[in-house]
Amino acid sequence: MEIIAKLAILADAAKYDASCASSGAPKRSSRNKAGIGSTNGAGICHSYTPDGRCVSLLKILLTNFCLYDCQYCVSRRSNDVPRARFTPAEVVRLTLDFYQRNYVSGLFLSSGIIRSADYTMEQLVEVARLLREEHQFRGYIHLKTIPDADPQLIAAAGRYADRLSVNIELPSNSALQRLAPEKSIAGIQAAMGVIRDGRKAVQEQPARGRAKAPRFAPSGQSTQLIVGAEPSSDKVILTRAQHLYQNFGLRRVYYSAFTPIPKSPPLVPLQAPPLLREHRLYQADFLMRGYGFQAEELLHSSEEDLPLDIDPKLGWALRHREQFPVDINRASQQMIARVPGIGLRSAQRIVALRQVRAVRLEDLRRLRCALEKARPFIITRDYRPRQDSASVVLRQRLSLSAQQLSLWG
Amino acid sequence: MGLANMYVLDCQDDFEQWREQARIALQRSLLPGEVCWQAEAAPDLFGAQSAVLAPLPEPAPALLVPARAVDMLALAARFRAPGRWDFLYKVLWRLNAGERQAIMAGDPDGAILQKRIKAVRREMHHLHAFLRFRKSTVAELDWVAWHEPAHDILDLASSHFAERLGQQRWVIATPQDGVFYDGEALHYARPCPEPWRAVAKGVRDDESLWATYYRHIFNPARLNREAMQGHMPRRFWAQLEEGRLIPELISEAQRGSRRSGQRESVASLPGKQIPARLVRKP
């Protein structure tokens, strides 16, 4: 099979992985050196596909032959799909060519499970080794880690790759047992633990030796949770995500709305992907990572799912009216960032400005805060909310209309 | 105020020249309305010769502008807009008068300044993201690229590619300026030398692998053209191979005969199931 025909099949099978980040790598440069490639911590999106997704890396599978039968996966062994397999040299050639033309900033390589977890992991590591050692490639490499692979192989992957990821895909053991019988939370978390410990060992080196010490996945580890392939609620998903952040030091959890796949098995739905639900989960996730919210704060105790019509920060504020209105000229930066419609960056800029003079409503408009949303929750020098509107009324006024909701399909 | 009282200066759209002129204007206590800079594109707009401001004899009054603010002005100066130098002088004048907020996003002038800095940074990022190298047809070069930035960022942003491409030799040409890397050092020129422009614009290259990748990594079940256009402005599409593919991919997805993620050309190939007997439980 020609390389272009393989590329069609093995890119098509890789699109269900949401991650395409190339950020967070240490500074590397090829200036006046043999080889190519650089990283500087910032990611680059070299293109966007019409689904609005960033193309930052060459994201492909080494092969879509797979012994596993995960029901949500297009490459499951029982599915009647065209199959292909790249040689490591072919992946290297594509990566270097795409990189030099500035199509991508690196490689994200994953694979179906062939022969065994160890054999598959060896193949992935071999591609990374060829790139780093034979071609002195200093661009970004993200390797998928196969659960149940030998920790020695995961360690080797960590020395070559900027990022490693193990996809948990479903948030509970019962869901995995039903849809992905070859996988288990324990096996997945064991692999995450190997990566966590590998990173920790490097970080614990004394500062003097650290520069020379071998690096281990310096851009951290990530995972993906599929949303809507089975009935797990947002509460279960966010609780699992928080657990992963806390126990395995994950850099990112990606949420991927389940996309119907051809020849769909009866266990998974045929509906269009729940994109708005995915969006709300990303918002909630960002509130956990950036704003110090706990998963429990973001969901009302009686609710299983995040509301779709309002964002999770607004939902939290409506349930905690006793903490509002917040005086923008006196409150802590952290509390200002908890106001609906005011983000982290704006909170920081508000605090800088009020050291020079009192902040007025017009200033917030200039800082591009979402005033419509923020108004009921703030006091400025020249403004305080007129009357204490009931939360129900506020919610009605600030929620997405039925028409807006329908845009999300 | 009549034009007779206005000093019309010319800095050749160069920050260092502007900075020297602005420094003298400040020391002479000229108000923002008393001095302006003519645009490169429209010299002698007022029918006047550009003025030369003589520096004051030493010791000149000390200026009170922090270095960080000067860096911000230098960045905002790269934003192409009529009257950009006059605007910068206004900000500089206010800073020198002790108005620290003149560079803050909450201030009307500061908001414009910050917006320009953000646009300049974004345009540098656009160069790193959307520039495409094509195989050179001349022996002295490995790669060539044509790019059309909206602001004056090439000199500042192009060393990024020397870090990426190691010892390879390349040229980037734009309508305004150009840069050539000879494998060891960067050479910047404004205006862009004609030979650089010729090699950069004159290439056709085989990009079928990339086109295949782009078609297949797209998920038609998640079509969201607004998000795409917000991130990848249309003005870049003409230089991108995928720019040609976008309309076709959108209309295929909209026709919606297939409501799954898989691309039709893959679905139509013969499939292969893998027998369960090959599976060994770990």
Report on this structure:
The complex is a heterodimer of chains A (409) and B (282). Chain A has 409 residues and is an alpha/beta fold. Chain A has helices spanning 3-12, 88-100, 117-134, 151-160, 173-179, 185-203, 207-210, 234-248, 275-290, 295-298, 312-319, 333-336, 344-354, 361-366, 371-374, 391-398, 402-407, and strands at 47-48, 54-55, 58-61, 106-110, 140-144, 163-165, 221-227, 252-257, 326-327, 378-379. Chain A has 2 domains: 3-271, Alpha-Beta Barrel (TIM Barrel), CATH 3.20.20; 312-407, no CATH class. In chain A, 51% of the residues are buried. Chain A is built from 17 helices and 10 strands. Chain A is globular, with a radius of gyration of 23 Å. The mean pLDDT of chain A is 93. The two termini of chain A are 38 Å apart. In chain A, strands 3-4-5-6-7-8 form a 6-stranded parallel β-sheet. Chain B has 3 domains: 3-122, no CATH class; 131-201, no CATH class; 208-257, no CATH class. Chain B has helices spanning 15-27, 67-76, 84-96, 108-130, 154-157, 159-165, 194-201, 208-217, 225-231, 241-255, 264-267; strands at 7-9, 35-37, 134-135, 143-146, 170-173, 178-181, 186-189. A 5-stranded mixed β-sheet of chain B has the order 3-4-5-6-7, covered by helices on one side. Chain B has a two-stranded parallel ribbon with strand order 1-2. Chain B has 282 residues and is α/β, with parallel strands linked by helices. Helix content of chain B is 40%, strand content 9%. Chain B has 11 helices and 7 strands. In chain B, helix 2 runs antiparallel to helix 3 (84-96) and helix 8 (208-217) runs parallel beside helix 10.
Provide a brief overview of the structure.
The complex is a heterodimer of chains A (409) and B (282). Chain A is of the alpha/beta class. Chain A contains 17 helices and 10 strands.
Number of helices of chain A: 17
Describe the sheet with the most strands of chain B. 5 strands, mixed
The SSE order of chain A reads: HEEEHEHEHEHHHEHEHHHEHHHHEHH
Relative strand content of chain A? 5-15%
Q: What is the CATH T-level topology of the largest domain in chain A?
A: TIM Barrel
- What's the helical proportion of residues of chain B? 40-55%
Summarize the helix and strand pattern of chain B as letters.
EHEHHHEEHHEEEHHHHH
State the fourth-level CATH superfamily of the largest domain in chain A: Aldolase class I
| Widest sheet: strand ordering of chain B | 3-4-5-6-7
Question: Which pair of chains forms the biggest interface, and how many residues does each contribute?
Answer: A-B, 81 and 81 residues
Spatial ordering of strands, largest sheet of chain A: 3-4-5-6-7-8
Q: Any idea how many domains of chain B?
A: 3
Number of helices of chain B: 11
Distance between the termini of chain B: 87 Å
**Beta-strand content bin of chain B:** 5-15%
Number of structurally distinct domains of chain A = 2
Could you tell me the radius of gyration of chain B in angstroms? 26 Å
Low-confidence stretches of chain B: none
Going by CATH, the architecture of the largest domain in chain A would be: Alpha-Beta Barrel
The percent of residues in helical segments of chain A reads: 25-40%
Give the CA-CA distance, first to last residue of chain A.
Answer: 38 Å
